[in-house]
Amino acid sequence: AQSVTQLDSHVSVSEGTPVLLRCNYSSSYSPSLFWYVQHPNKGLQLLLKYTSAATLVKGINGFEAEFKKSETSFHLTKPSAHMSDAAEYFCVVSGRMDSSYKLIFGSGTRLLVRP
Amino acid sequence: NAGVTQTPKFQVLKTGQSMTLQCAQDMNHEYMSWYRQDPGMGLRLIHYSVGAGITDQGEVPNGYNVSRSTTEDFPLRLLSAAPSQTSVYFCASSYSSLKRGYGYTFGSGTRLTVV
Q1: Of A84, A41, A85, which is closest to residue A76 (Cα–Cα)?
Q2: B88 alpha-carbon distance from chain centroid
Q3: Could you give the C-alpha distances from B94 to A35, A42, A65, B15, B103, in angstroms and in order?
Q4: Confidence of residue B113 (pLDDT cuts 50, 70, 90)
Q5: Which residues on neighbouring strands pair with residue B105, listed in sequence order?
C-alpha cells in the first residue's frame, strides 16, 4: 500500500528565508509524487510532480523538490519565502487501487510567513 | 477555460435532508473523483469514475451516491445528511487513471454544513 507522511503540521518562517516542508512516502513500487498548494478558501493547485525522470523537480513560484529513494523522502523547498506563499501544502502519492491509480494525500502542512 | 466547476460554493442542510453537489469539467477528462477535506486529515476519496457509466467507491463512500451519465458531469448525492458530513468537498478530474503520473485538476470546493 502507498502512503505519505508530512512531518510537520505547521511551519513558520520569516519572509526572505528558506522554506522546507518535509514529506516521507511509502510505496511498494516506484512512485509518482506530487506537491499541491491550497490557498485559503481556494481549490488545490499542482506545484510540481515527480514521475521517475529527474530526481530534482522544479515547480511553479520557485518551489522545487528532490526525490530521495534511499530516504523515501520528497521534501519541498524554496530559497526565499514570500508572503504570498502562506498556504497549506499537501504531499501526495499516486497509489494503485483496484485497476486504476488514485491520489493519496498527506495530512497537510500549513506554512505561515512572518513579515 | 473553465476547468472543473463545482456548485454550489456553500450550502447549509438540516439533518436528514438530501442534496446533490454538482461537478462539471470541460477538458474531456476520463477520470473524475470526489474528495472530502477535514481538518488535519488531508483529502479522502469518496467515489471515483474512470469513464462514463463506470463508478466505484473510494475510502469513505458511506452516505454518498454518484453517477456518471456523461463524460463531463459527475454529481455527488447526499442521501440523508448527517452532521458528520460537514466538510469541504472537492471534485477533481484527470486525463487518465491508468498511468500514475497524471496530475489532477481540482474544483474550487463546496463548503457544506449539516446542522
Answers
A1: A85
A2: 10
A3: 16, 19, 22, 33, 6
A4: very high
A5: B93
Q: Which three cell numbers stand for residue B111?
A: 463548503
Q: What is the pLDDT of residue B87?
A: 97
Query: Nearest CA of chain A to the CA of B94: how many Å?
Result: 10
CA distances B71 to B25, B54, B76, B94, Å, are: 8, 10, 15, 12
User: What local confidence, expressed as pLDDT, does residue A103 receive?
Assistant: 83
CA distance to A34, A111, B59, B73, B113, per residue, from B53 (Å): 29, 40, 20, 11, 30
CB A88 within 8 A of CB A108: yes
**What CA–CA distance (Å, rounded) separates B76 from B49?**
11
Task: Give which of B76, B84, B89, B114 is closest to B35, Cα–Cα.
Answer: B89
pLDDT of B61-98, one tens digit each? 999 999 999 999 999 999 999 999 999 999 999 887 65
- Cβ–Cβ below 8 Å for B41 and A107: yes
8 Å CB contact of B103 and A49:
yes
pLDDT, average across residues A9-20 = 97
Give the distance from residue B50's alpha carbon to the nearest chain A alpha carbon, in angstroms: 8
State how far the Cα of B58 lies from the Cα of B75, in Å rounded to an integer: 15
Q: Distance (Å, rounded) from C-alpha B1 to C-alpha A94? A: 26
What value does the mean pLDDT of chain B take?
92
